[in-house]
Amino acid sequence: MNLNKKTLRDIDLKGKRVVMRVDFNVPIKEGKIKDDTRVTAALPTIKYVIEHGASLVLLSHLGRPEGKGYEADFSLKPVADHLAKLLGKPVKFATDCIGDEIVAQSKALKAGEVMVCENTRFHKAEDMKTKTPEDKEKMRAFAKELAKLGDLYCNDAFGTAHRAHASTAVICDFIGKQNSVAGFLMEKELQYLGKAVADPKRPFVAIIGGAKVSGKLEVLASLMEKVNTILIGGGMAYTFLKAMGHKIGKSLVEEELLDTAKQTLANAKAKGVKFLLPIDNVEADNFDNAANRKVVGNDIDDGWMALDIGPKTVALYAAEIAGAKTVVWNGPMGCFEMANFAAGTMGVCKAVADSGAVSIIGGGDSVSAVNQSGLAGKMSHISTGGGASLEFLEGKELPGVAALADA
Questions:
Q1: 326-330 and 305-309: which strand pairing?
Q2: What is the pLDDT of residues 220-233, one digit of tens each?
Q3: Which residues are catalytic, by number?
Q4: What is the CATH number of the domain that holds 161?
């Protein structure tokens, strides 16, 4: 997959209509946006388009409405209103993303004007999961309608680049590959992740956490070909510890993956990759911030569950991170959402911030943890794409990237 893509800088925007795929899939509660990181991340690209004499039509999904038509809880209207505040100018809102009326609204936009279209996932054809020939035709027909909204297409939604959806990839067939370019957020993601994969400064340390081994097997296998050290935390650690013969109490475990965990450890040893697991843990007698808790070694008491890595593990991991030149982090070290089980994740966060390494943070929970820590400004790059950054690190082709014009 060629990562060197044409961007908006490579084309004359004056007088053009740009249809741009953004990732405005933000948490909304009672009509209020709880975290606008993804909206603010798209602002440099949005501003560039409108400052260079083009009009702009924005496409995005929000949540998983399953293509059943309009649902108020999944409407992008609050996001359009919020974007207007951030830009300090009116933002028009279209009540759908296809149709003659919406196309007419897009054509009526003047240079510098912005319109947000309603949730693409209100249409089932945005993502035809079964991909039968009939479904593919429906998806292509939908993408063809979306393409009528602009003369040029820009993808700035790295978070959805691993999806071969109508608005992320298929639309390029109708606007034309040479008229399909990357936005600046997409460009930045490809630069940082691409360099980490192709030519990392060493030592290269990967920190992999989160609840389950199953979601990280492919990335672990891929990273073993690239990194010097892997640090494991979160619920997934206890499948590995059980595979090594430790007692894990009521901690999270994937029994069906114990043999796979053993094989993963053997593979790391064979490849000379340092594969570190927690050496102490914070256990609790209940999954609750107010639960009784204590620090134990690698054997968890019967009836108790491990909810965070312990202080010795934090120190061990921090020492590895301190010597790193490149760090990739995906997944928290424990249940950081509960204050009493956040010390491990926050300790690792501080170590990454202090390391001076090129640091790439990917995955929704890792990004939330970094934002919570107040250390986001010290990270080299915070990826907006959890699944996309994982698949990128696994070496998979991302359809939303492959569809864009090469530089």
A1: unpaired
A2: 998 999 899 999 99
A3: 38, 212, 364, 387
A4: 3.40.50.1260
